[in-house]
Amino acid sequence: MVKKIKDFVKKYPGFTVFFLLALCVIGVAVFAPLIATHDPYEAVLADAVQAPSAEHWFGTDKMGRDLFSRVIYGARTSLSASLTLVCIIMVVGTFLGIVAGYFGGIVDAVIMRISDMMISFPGMVLAIAVAGILGANIKNAIIALAIVSWTKYARLARSLVIKIRHRDYIAAARVTGSRTSYILYKYMLPNVLPTILITGFTDIGSMMLEIAGLSFLGFGAQSPTAEWGLMLNEGRAYMTAAPWLMVFPGLAIFITVVVFNLLGDSLRDVLDPRHE
Questions:
Q1: How many Å from the N-terminal Cα to the C-terminal Cα in the chain?
Q2: Sequence-ordered list of residues with C-beta below 8 angstroms from that of 265, at least 6 positions apart, any chain
């Protein structure tokens, strides 16, 4: 077992490094109560907008809350929201894409026309409109982004299914009486899954940026929630007087997005040997 792990690490060093870094980011979110030095929601107005110091490593915000603790707890909100969103659009988009590609005809036409309609609108503008209608909070931001983001997975899954739906082993499965649900699960999904997973891991970073963008504009997380996009918005008014209010949340977003983007890229080497 140890030898297999060593061989895997030697074969895929990039994936190993970024996987460990991703685990570190997730670990920060999971163990936030142990890492944070203060209560992220405790406001001490007398300590408002203090520069980084030994007491407050990242300084304090306009309410006197410890910024380091809020950035650490912000990993929970931002990462959980991003992972939830990616899971939703992966499941919904992949299911609709497989169904459209396998059945074709009117089913394919309806799903793809809906997809075309969603793509015809600028994604963020449509997400802002949906979030504005539903109400400004993190759950509605996830719903709004899910509505506009599933189309990529549907089109990707559909194109992969169309390539194999006329293969001999699919025809043999139909002739032997295999149920449609069995064919979709046994043959279609495994052919689609590697590419979908690679896309999903790569999208974690971009979805985090989308959620942070909605929160920054006031359509996502609301105060006093510790969320990186909201923290950027709150620090915007103090950009010149207290730049640390934007630097540290922005740096947290940057590091997390880069780690998950590179993890998704290196995952391609593991799941698709032809890429090498």
A1: 25
A2: 202
Cα four-point dihedral sign 124, 128, 131, 133: negative
Amino acid at the residue 167: R
pLDDT tens track for 143-179 = 888 988 889 899 999 998 988 888 878 888 788 877 8
Looking up tokens 């989308």, which residue turns up? 210
Backbone angles phi, psi at 224, to 5 degrees: -100, 25
Among 274, 266, 275, 203, CA closest to 8? 266
37 three-state secondary structure: coil
Give the CA angle between residues 84, 85, 90 to the nearest 5°.
Answer: 100
pLDDT at 193: 87
Task: Kindly state the DSSP code that residue 119 receives in the 8-state scheme.
Answer: H
Residue with tokens 């025809």: 171
| pLDDT average, residue stretch 95-112 | 89
According to DSSP H, which parts of 121-188 are helical? 123-134, 138-149, 151-164, 168-175, 180-183
Query: Of the candidates 212, 193, 213, 214, which has an alpha carbon nearest to the alpha carbon of residue 90?
Result: 193
State how far the Cα of 156 lies from the Cα of 100, in Å rounded to an integer. 11
CB-count exposure of residue 28 (10 Å: 0-12, 13-18, 19+): buried
